[in-house]
Amino acid sequence: MKKRIKIRMLFCAGLCSIVAALAAAPAHAQVNCTASQSAAIQCFVANAVTTDLTQPHFGMTLAQFEAYGVAVNQILQSNHTHLVLLGTASAIADAMPPTNADGSSNAAAQRTAVTSIVSGEVVKGLASQPTGVSLAQMQFFTLDVVGAMNKTSGYMQLLTPGVGLRVIDSYIVTSTSNGAVNWNQLNANLSTFVNTFITAGLVKVPAGVTTAEVVAFVQWVARSIYYYKVATGRAKL
User: Fold this and answer.
1) Residue 69 CA to chain centroid, in angstroms?
2) Cα–Cα dist 51/40, whole Å
């Protein structure tokens, strides 16, 4: 008799625990995962976190991480924004690694360069924000790709996608005297460089983007490169 009572008590306790767990389950558990692409992605992200396939990063909550997953899908379906961000990521991973000049780690310097250059692409019209996607989510996407590209066993340097950044840096170097950059001279030289390449047909300006916007973006990138070099103690990229 006592055994039966104990079994019933254990059963009730277990049932109560299950009910409590269900009551405390996150809202995404109530989502119809087949209702839309966004719902399917939210469910996938939630399940990936639950099974330790991945974890929220960049300080995101689970809900923000699910929204980020939806944003990544929007970016990848965009006409050109994903190409711009992927190109940016590969160039930075090559020419602006997360290390100081002495080889010690400095991930913050690379992160700052990424967020700055992506901001410039949006502000200067080279990358459009897909519907429902924030600038921060575009920056997070680029940071994720850069993080993966940082670990390529030297093949990224072999492909040299960062050559454009190094060319811009060469103008910074020649416009620097006694450690000080002559920004007026640098901006003028970069403007001439961009206009010469466009006139010669070596750079094709996409429809809807003006030469002035390309020049302004290159000058923006020059600032990002300069601050990266200062932070990492590099004389050049």
Assistant:
1) 13
2) 16
pLDDT digits (tens), the chain, 237 positions: 444 444 343 334 443 333 333 333 344 456 689 888 889 999 999 999 999 999 999 999 999 999 999 999 999 999 899 999 999 999 999 999 999 999 999 999 999 999 999 999 999 999 999 999 999 999 999 999 999 999 888 888 788 899 999 999 999 999 999 989 999 999 999 999 999 999 999 989 988 899 999 999 999 999 999 999 999 999 999
For the chain, the domains span: 74-232
Q: Which amino acid is at 65?
A: F
Output the pTM of the full model: 0.84
* Rounded CA separation 137/117 (Å): 14
Q: Nearest CA to 92 among 153, 137, 144?
A: 144
Q: Could you give the residue ranges of the DSSP H alpha helices within 77-182?
A: 81-95, 107-123, 135-149, 155-159, 163-174
In whole angstroms, give the CA distance from residue 134 to residue 81.
13
